[in-house]
Amino acid sequence: MGVVRRRRAADRSTLPVGIAWRNPARGLRWLAALVACLCFGSPAAAAAGRVALALEGPEITQGETVAVTVSGPGIASARLVAGGREIPLYRVSGRLVGLLGTDPLTRPGSVHLVLTAVDEAGRRLTAAARLRVRDGRFGARNVTLSPDTMRLLSPQKVAEERRRFAEAVRRTSARRLWQGPFLHPVAGALSSGYGVRSIYSGRPGGYHLGVDYAADDGTPVRAANRGRVTLADRLPLSGNIVVIDHGMGVFTSYHHMSSLAVREGQEVARGDLLGHVGSTGLSTGPHLHWAMLVGQARVNPLHWTRRPPLP
Fold first, then answer.
1. Any alpha helices (H) in the chain, and if so which ranges?
2. Is pTM, for the whole model, over 0.85?
3. Domain of 287?
4. Among 23, 67, 90, 107, which is 20 to 30 Å from 296 by CA?
Protein backbone atom coordinates (compact mmCIF):
# COMPACT_ATOMS: atom_id res chain seq x y z
CA MET A 1 0.00 0.00 0.00
CA GLY A 2 1.43 3.33 -1.05
CA VAL A 3 1.57 6.00 1.61
CA VAL A 4 2.14 9.68 1.04
CA ARG A 5 3.01 12.38 3.54
CA ARG A 6 0.39 15.11 3.69
CA ARG A 7 1.58 18.71 3.41
CA ARG A 8 0.76 21.02 6.28
CA ALA A 9 -1.73 23.81 5.64
CA ALA A 10 -0.36 27.26 5.06
CA ASP A 11 -1.13 30.04 7.52
CA ARG A 12 -4.50 29.09 6.29
CA SER A 13 5.07 25.54 -27.04
CA THR A 14 1.48 26.94 -27.17
CA LEU A 15 -0.44 23.94 -25.92
CA PRO A 16 -4.21 23.53 -26.29
CA VAL A 17 -6.03 23.24 -22.98
CA GLY A 18 -9.31 21.31 -22.57
CA ILE A 19 -11.92 22.11 -19.92
CA ALA A 20 -14.84 19.77 -19.22
CA TRP A 21 -17.59 19.23 -16.66
CA ARG A 22 -18.88 15.83 -15.69
CA ASN A 23 -22.33 17.43 -15.48
CA PRO A 24 -22.76 19.17 -18.89
CA ALA A 25 -26.11 20.79 -18.05
CA ARG A 26 -24.69 22.62 -15.03
CA GLY A 27 -21.54 23.45 -16.96
CA LEU A 28 -23.42 25.22 -19.73
CA ARG A 29 -25.23 27.42 -17.25
CA TRP A 30 -22.00 28.52 -15.64
CA LEU A 31 -19.63 28.45 -18.61
CA ALA A 32 -18.40 31.94 -17.84
CA ALA A 33 -17.22 30.78 -14.41
CA LEU A 34 -14.63 28.39 -15.83
CA VAL A 35 -11.78 29.93 -17.83
CA ALA A 36 -8.85 28.22 -19.54
CA CYS A 37 -5.48 29.93 -19.65
CA LEU A 38 -2.92 29.15 -22.38
CA CYS A 39 0.87 29.12 -22.10
CA PHE A 40 3.06 30.44 -24.90
CA GLY A 41 5.64 28.43 -26.83
CA SER A 42 6.37 26.93 -30.25
CA PRO A 43 3.62 25.89 -32.74
CA ALA A 44 5.29 22.48 -33.14
CA ALA A 45 4.69 21.70 -29.49
CA ALA A 46 1.02 22.61 -29.81
CA ALA A 47 0.31 19.49 -31.85
CA ALA A 48 2.20 17.23 -29.47
CA GLY A 49 0.79 17.96 -26.00
CA ARG A 50 -2.56 18.57 -24.36
CA VAL A 51 -3.84 18.69 -20.80
CA ALA A 52 -7.40 19.04 -19.51
CA LEU A 53 -9.12 19.83 -16.22
CA ALA A 54 -12.54 18.29 -15.52
CA LEU A 55 -14.66 19.46 -12.58
CA GLU A 56 -17.84 17.76 -11.41
CA GLY A 57 -19.54 21.13 -11.44
CA PRO A 58 -18.68 24.83 -11.61
CA GLU A 59 -19.93 25.66 -8.09
CA ILE A 60 -20.27 24.09 -4.65
CA THR A 61 -21.49 25.15 -1.20
CA GLN A 62 -19.25 25.43 1.88
CA GLY A 63 -18.89 21.94 3.34
CA GLU A 64 -19.00 20.15 -0.01
CA THR A 65 -16.18 18.42 -1.91
CA VAL A 66 -15.48 18.52 -5.64
CA ALA A 67 -13.29 16.11 -7.59
CA VAL A 68 -10.85 17.65 -10.10
CA THR A 69 -9.61 15.28 -12.80
CA VAL A 70 -6.46 15.90 -14.83
CA SER A 71 -6.16 14.11 -18.14
CA GLY A 72 -3.82 14.22 -21.11
CA PRO A 73 -1.45 11.93 -22.99
CA GLY A 74 1.87 11.12 -21.35
CA ILE A 75 1.64 13.31 -18.25
CA ALA A 76 4.71 12.58 -16.13
CA SER A 77 3.95 14.93 -13.23
CA ALA A 78 1.42 17.58 -12.28
CA ARG A 79 0.79 20.13 -9.54
CA LEU A 80 -2.62 21.58 -8.74
CA VAL A 81 -3.07 24.72 -6.63
CA ALA A 82 -6.47 26.07 -5.56
CA GLY A 83 -6.76 29.40 -3.81
CA GLY A 84 -3.04 29.34 -3.03
CA ARG A 85 -3.25 25.87 -1.42
CA GLU A 86 -1.79 22.79 -3.09
CA ILE A 87 -4.26 19.98 -3.74
CA PRO A 88 -2.56 16.54 -3.79
CA LEU A 89 -3.15 14.49 -6.93
CA TYR A 90 -3.61 10.70 -6.93
CA ARG A 91 -3.77 8.20 -9.79
CA VAL A 92 -7.26 6.71 -10.19
CA SER A 93 -8.05 4.49 -13.19
CA GLY A 94 -5.17 5.93 -15.20
CA ARG A 95 -5.97 9.58 -14.45
CA LEU A 96 -4.79 12.09 -11.87
CA VAL A 97 -7.52 13.13 -9.44
CA GLY A 98 -7.53 15.72 -6.68
CA LEU A 99 -10.21 16.29 -4.04
CA LEU A 100 -10.96 19.92 -3.17
CA GLY A 101 -12.82 20.13 0.14
CA THR A 102 -14.45 23.22 1.64
CA ASP A 103 -15.71 24.14 5.11
CA PRO A 104 -17.14 27.20 6.94
CA LEU A 105 -13.64 28.72 6.96
CA THR A 106 -13.47 28.62 3.15
CA ARG A 107 -14.18 32.12 1.90
CA PRO A 108 -17.28 32.28 -0.35
CA GLY A 109 -16.63 33.49 -3.87
CA SER A 110 -14.35 32.49 -6.70
CA VAL A 111 -11.49 30.01 -6.18
CA HIS A 112 -8.69 30.11 -8.75
CA LEU A 113 -7.33 26.67 -9.76
CA VAL A 114 -3.95 26.48 -11.50
CA LEU A 115 -2.54 23.28 -12.97
CA THR A 116 1.11 22.91 -13.98
CA ALA A 117 2.06 19.63 -15.67
CA VAL A 118 5.07 18.14 -17.43
CA ASP A 119 4.68 15.45 -20.09
CA GLU A 120 7.06 12.57 -20.79
CA ALA A 121 8.89 14.67 -23.40
CA GLY A 122 9.61 17.34 -20.80
CA ARG A 123 7.13 19.86 -22.18
CA ARG A 124 5.39 22.15 -19.67
CA LEU A 125 1.60 22.33 -19.87
CA THR A 126 -0.55 24.76 -17.92
CA ALA A 127 -4.28 25.23 -17.39
CA ALA A 128 -6.38 27.37 -15.08
CA ALA A 129 -10.01 27.46 -14.01
CA ARG A 130 -12.33 29.07 -11.49
CA LEU A 131 -14.72 27.39 -9.07
CA ARG A 132 -17.45 29.30 -7.27
CA VAL A 133 -18.01 28.58 -3.55
CA ARG A 134 -21.43 29.52 -2.17
CA ASP A 135 -22.04 30.65 1.42
CA GLY A 136 -23.39 27.78 3.54
CA ARG A 137 -25.40 30.22 5.70
CA PHE A 138 -24.76 28.32 8.93
CA GLY A 139 -26.51 29.31 12.13
CA ALA A 140 -25.45 29.18 15.78
CA ARG A 141 -26.17 26.97 18.79
CA ASN A 142 -25.92 27.56 22.53
CA VAL A 143 -24.23 24.85 24.58
CA THR A 144 -24.30 24.95 28.39
CA LEU A 145 -21.30 23.26 29.99
CA SER A 146 -20.47 22.56 33.61
CA PRO A 147 -17.40 24.30 35.13
CA ASP A 148 -15.50 21.00 35.05
CA THR A 149 -16.26 20.52 31.37
CA MET A 150 -15.35 24.13 30.57
CA ARG A 151 -11.89 23.50 32.00
CA LEU A 152 -11.31 21.08 29.10
CA LEU A 153 -11.09 24.16 26.84
CA SER A 154 -7.82 25.28 28.43
CA PRO A 155 -5.07 26.23 25.94
CA GLN A 156 -2.93 23.28 27.08
CA LYS A 157 -5.65 20.68 26.47
CA VAL A 158 -6.68 22.23 23.17
CA ALA A 159 -3.04 22.17 22.02
CA GLU A 160 -2.68 18.51 23.04
CA GLU A 161 -5.87 17.60 21.16
CA ARG A 162 -4.72 19.35 18.00
CA ARG A 163 -1.26 17.74 18.15
CA ARG A 164 -2.60 14.20 18.50
CA PHE A 165 -5.17 14.66 15.73
CA ALA A 166 -2.56 16.18 13.40
CA GLU A 167 -0.35 13.13 13.93
CA ALA A 168 -3.25 10.84 13.04
CA VAL A 169 -3.89 12.52 9.67
CA ARG A 170 -0.28 13.30 8.69
CA ARG A 171 0.02 10.30 6.36
CA THR A 172 -2.58 8.92 3.97
CA SER A 173 -2.78 5.99 1.60
CA ALA A 174 -2.16 6.96 -2.02
CA ARG A 175 -4.91 4.50 -3.01
CA ARG A 176 -8.63 5.03 -2.69
CA LEU A 177 -9.70 2.56 -0.01
CA TRP A 178 -13.40 3.46 0.16
CA GLN A 179 -16.08 2.23 -2.23
CA GLY A 180 -19.49 3.75 -2.75
CA PRO A 181 -21.49 5.96 -0.39
CA PHE A 182 -20.47 6.17 3.27
CA LEU A 183 -22.67 4.65 5.97
CA HIS A 184 -24.21 6.63 8.80
CA PRO A 185 -21.98 5.32 11.62
CA VAL A 186 -24.73 4.94 14.21
CA ALA A 187 -28.47 4.35 14.35
CA GLY A 188 -29.87 7.59 15.71
CA ALA A 189 -31.42 10.92 14.80
CA LEU A 190 -29.27 13.95 14.03
CA SER A 191 -29.20 16.25 17.05
CA SER A 192 -26.82 18.94 15.79
CA GLY A 193 -26.04 19.85 12.21
CA TYR A 194 -22.85 20.72 10.38
CA GLY A 195 -21.33 24.20 10.32
CA VAL A 196 -23.24 25.91 13.14
CA ARG A 197 -21.23 28.27 15.36
CA SER A 198 -20.97 26.93 18.93
CA ILE A 199 -21.41 29.27 21.91
CA TYR A 200 -20.22 27.52 25.09
CA SER A 201 -21.89 28.95 28.21
CA GLY A 202 -21.94 32.39 26.59
CA ARG A 203 -18.36 32.08 25.33
CA PRO A 204 -18.04 32.11 21.49
CA GLY A 205 -16.41 28.97 20.15
CA GLY A 206 -15.63 27.52 16.76
CA TYR A 207 -17.79 26.02 14.06
CA HIS A 208 -19.35 22.60 14.55
CA LEU A 209 -17.23 20.80 11.97
CA GLY A 210 -19.18 17.56 11.92
CA VAL A 211 -22.61 16.19 12.81
CA ASP A 212 -24.01 14.79 16.09
CA TYR A 213 -26.20 11.73 16.42
CA ALA A 214 -28.42 11.33 19.48
CA ALA A 215 -28.12 7.73 20.66
CA ASP A 216 -28.27 5.75 23.89
CA ASP A 217 -25.13 5.00 25.82
CA GLY A 218 -23.60 1.77 24.49
CA THR A 219 -25.12 1.96 20.99
CA PRO A 220 -22.73 0.36 18.46
CA VAL A 221 -20.63 2.73 16.33
CA ARG A 222 -19.58 1.37 12.94
CA ALA A 223 -17.01 2.30 10.28
CA ALA A 224 -18.57 4.46 7.59
CA ASN A 225 -16.38 2.86 4.93
CA ARG A 226 -13.26 0.79 4.35
CA GLY A 227 -9.94 2.12 5.64
CA ARG A 228 -7.14 1.89 8.19
CA VAL A 229 -7.33 3.07 11.81
CA THR A 230 -4.73 5.79 12.48
CA LEU A 231 -5.88 6.74 15.99
CA ALA A 232 -7.79 4.86 18.70
CA ASP A 233 -7.26 6.55 22.04
CA ARG A 234 -8.68 9.00 24.57
CA LEU A 235 -8.14 12.72 23.96
CA PRO A 236 -9.02 15.67 26.25
CA LEU A 237 -11.89 17.09 24.15
CA SER A 238 -12.86 14.23 21.84
CA GLY A 239 -12.84 11.64 24.61
CA ASN A 240 -12.55 8.13 23.19
CA ILE A 241 -11.93 8.71 19.50
CA VAL A 242 -11.24 6.64 16.37
CA VAL A 243 -9.75 8.13 13.19
CA ILE A 244 -9.83 6.18 9.91
CA ASP A 245 -7.76 6.87 6.78
CA HIS A 246 -9.85 6.08 3.68
CA GLY A 247 -7.05 7.03 1.28
CA MET A 248 -6.40 10.05 -0.95
CA GLY A 249 -6.44 12.42 2.02
CA VAL A 250 -9.94 11.41 3.19
CA PHE A 251 -10.35 10.71 6.92
CA THR A 252 -13.37 10.13 9.17
CA SER A 253 -13.37 10.51 12.95
CA TYR A 254 -15.74 9.21 15.64
CA HIS A 255 -15.80 11.06 18.99
CA HIS A 256 -16.98 10.78 22.62
CA MET A 257 -17.36 6.98 22.66
CA SER A 258 -17.65 5.06 25.91
CA SER A 259 -15.40 2.24 24.69
CA LEU A 260 -13.21 1.35 21.71
CA ALA A 261 -13.23 -1.93 19.78
CA VAL A 262 -10.30 -1.32 17.39
CA ARG A 263 -6.60 -0.54 17.60
CA GLU A 264 -4.27 1.73 15.63
CA GLY A 265 -3.05 0.18 12.37
CA GLN A 266 -6.06 -2.11 12.07
CA GLU A 267 -7.78 -2.47 8.68
CA VAL A 268 -11.56 -2.07 8.89
CA ALA A 269 -14.34 -2.76 6.42
CA ARG A 270 -17.51 -0.77 5.85
CA GLY A 271 -19.81 -1.50 8.81
CA ASP A 272 -17.17 -2.95 11.17
CA LEU A 273 -17.64 -2.21 14.88
CA LEU A 274 -15.43 0.65 16.12
CA GLY A 275 -16.81 1.17 19.63
CA HIS A 276 -19.90 2.31 21.48
CA VAL A 277 -21.69 5.62 22.00
CA GLY A 278 -20.75 7.47 25.18
CA SER A 279 -20.22 10.93 26.66
CA THR A 280 -16.47 11.21 27.15
CA GLY A 281 -14.48 14.43 26.65
CA LEU A 282 -16.24 17.72 25.87
CA SER A 283 -19.78 16.35 25.94
CA THR A 284 -23.07 17.08 27.69
CA GLY A 285 -24.63 13.62 27.23
CA PRO A 286 -24.44 10.38 25.22
CA HIS A 287 -24.06 11.04 21.50
CA LEU A 288 -21.69 10.46 18.59
CA HIS A 289 -19.87 13.31 16.88
CA TRP A 290 -18.92 12.23 13.35
CA ALA A 291 -16.53 14.32 11.26
CA MET A 292 -14.68 14.10 7.95
CA LEU A 293 -11.42 15.62 6.75
CA VAL A 294 -10.60 16.03 3.04
CA GLY A 295 -7.14 17.47 2.56
CA GLN A 296 -7.09 20.38 5.00
CA ALA A 297 -10.87 20.98 5.00
CA ARG A 298 -13.34 19.57 7.53
CA VAL A 299 -16.19 18.84 5.14
CA ASN A 300 -19.79 17.83 5.80
CA PRO A 301 -19.76 14.00 6.01
CA LEU A 302 -23.46 13.75 5.18
CA HIS A 303 -22.71 14.66 1.56
CA TRP A 304 -20.60 11.52 1.34
CA THR A 305 -23.49 9.33 2.50
CA ARG A 306 -25.47 10.38 -0.58
CA ARG A 307 -23.02 10.81 -3.46
CA PRO A 308 -19.26 10.80 -2.85
CA PRO A 309 -17.13 12.80 -5.32
CA LEU A 310 -15.70 9.48 -6.57
CA PRO A 311 -18.58 6.98 -6.25
1. 24-29, 43-46, 147-150, 155-168, 302-306
2. no
3. 140-306
4. 23
